[in-house]
């Protein structure tokens, strides 16, 4: 913990300045989506991953690439398809000839050996391939050929899903969804934002993000965020919200667990710093409840029939529990 008021203010100011510098740089490339950009960087800072739901063509790849360039991080993209195999992601052992004519076994690393990985349309791959990615997300390491190889830090996965086209897909089970820190929703831009997108993408030269931070800065931001204190009454409020998703509710079939509570409080710590506070408030819990819980709340058939969304249920629980 920080030992003085001056040290606390210095850490909070340092965090806020670096965080905003990165998001502003991404904003030079991506029109709108400031909240999605902020929550993506929040997940990266706290060591998590995000599941992004939105139709193709809204700039998700470009956003993550801009983040990689702004922070001097490596970036890889994998298009998930039904014929994709686990080794296509993690890598595999290969036999090669030595200079003396003999043979040796070497490991050929897959695209998962990067800092930022875009898993495009993750629900199009088979559960076996999905599980290989999910294991790496959880362990930050890859097991292959009897060896465990750690992934470089920071390691971050953004997985995408198309909410409209579901034919030929393999929906992620509840346990897999729970491994994502946040679920973010990307909607179609408004008319003015679409005009800005058109201007930027049809110009002779297009804006590109420049490096404004280093990978070590992300880890430094993580250390600062983890120091932010959470008062007992704020912890209790977060616990009540998470437990309420597992209580008796006409629209809920299954609710959230410990990972949701962790995601909620870690994200709230980052938001507190961005709001120029060095302590978490109930406003931070409210702001992060949607991203942290919407993919962990399984709705009943009655909810689907009534056209009720997870966000609707979460808002109801916030109103009753906080």
Structure described in brief:
With 322 residues, this protein is of the alpha/beta class.
Walk me through this protein's architecture.
α1 crosses α3 (60-70), α9 crosses α13 (310-321) and α10 (258-274) crosses α11 (282-293). Helix content is 47%, strand content 16%. The chain is globular, with a radius of gyration of 21 Å. It contains 13 helices and 11 strands. It has 2 domains: 1-83 and 114-227, P-loop containing nucleotide triphosphate hydrolases (Rossmann fold, 3-Layer(aba) Sandwich), CATH 3.40.50; 230-322, Helicase, Ruva Protein, domain 3 (Orthogonal Bundle), CATH 1.10.8.80. It has helices spanning 5-27, 34-45, 60-70, 86-90, 127-139, 174-177, 191-201, 215-227, 232-244, 258-274, 282-293, 301-305, 310-321, and strands at 50-53, 75-79, 91-97, 103-109, 116-120, 141-144, 147-150, 156-161, 182-185, 252-254, 298-299. The chain has 322 residues and is an alpha/beta fold.
Supply the key terms.
Helicase, Ruva Protein, domain 3, Rossmann fold, alpha/beta, 322 residues, globular, five-stranded parallel beta sheet, 13 helices, two-stranded antiparallel ribbon
How is the secondary structure organized here?
Elements: H1 5-27, H2 34-45, E1 50-53, H3 60-70, E2 75-79, H4 86-90, E3 91-97, E4 103-109, E5 116-120, H5 127-139, E6 141-144, E7 147-150, E8 156-161, H6 174-177, E9 182-185, H7 191-201, H8 215-227, H9 232-244, E10 252-254, H10 258-274, H11 282-293, E11 298-299, H12 301-305, H13 310-321
Parallel strand pairs: 1-8, 1-9, 2-5, 5-8
Antiparallel strand pairs: 3-4, 6-7, 10-11
């Amino acid at each position: 913990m920080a030992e003085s008021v001056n040290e606390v203010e210095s850490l909070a100011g340092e965090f806020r300045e670096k965080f905003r510098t990165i998001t502003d740089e991404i904003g030079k490339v991506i029109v709108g989506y400031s909240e999605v950009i902020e929550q993506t960087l929040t997940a990266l800072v706290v060591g998590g991953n995000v599941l992004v739901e939105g139709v193709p063509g809204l700039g998700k790849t470009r956003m993550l690439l801009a983040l990689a360039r702004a922070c001097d991080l490596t970036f890889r993209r994998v298009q998930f398809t039904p014929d994709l195999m686990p080794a296509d992601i993690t890598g595999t052992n290969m036999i090669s000839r030595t200079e003396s004519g003999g043979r040796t076994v070497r490991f050929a690393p897959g695209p998962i050996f990067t800092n930022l990985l875009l898993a495009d349309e993750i629900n199009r791959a088979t559960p076996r391939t999905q599980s290989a990615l999910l294991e790496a997300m959880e362990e930050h390491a890859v097991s292959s050929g009897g060896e465990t190889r750690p992934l470089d830090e920071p390691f971050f996965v953004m997985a995408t899903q198309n909410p409209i086209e579901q034919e030929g897909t393999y929906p992620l089970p509840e346990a897999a969804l729970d491994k994502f820190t946040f679920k973010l929703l990307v909607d179609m831009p408004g008319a003015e934002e679409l005009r800005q997108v058109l201007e930027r993408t049809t110009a002779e030269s297009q804006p590109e993000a420049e490096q404004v931070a280093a990978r070590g800065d992300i880890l430094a931001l993580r250390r600062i965020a983890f120091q932010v204190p959470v008062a007992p009454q704020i912890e209790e409020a977060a616990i009540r919200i998470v437990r309420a998703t597992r209580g008796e509710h006409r629209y809920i079939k299954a609710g959230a667990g410990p990972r949701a509570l962790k995601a909620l409080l870690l994200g709230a710590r980052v938001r507190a710093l961005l709001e120029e506070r060095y302590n978490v408030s109930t406003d931070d819990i409210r702001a992060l409840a949607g991203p942290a819980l919407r993919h962990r709340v399984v709705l009943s058939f009655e909810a689907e029939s009534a056209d009720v969304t997870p966000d609707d249920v979460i808002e109801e629980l916030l109103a009753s529990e906080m």
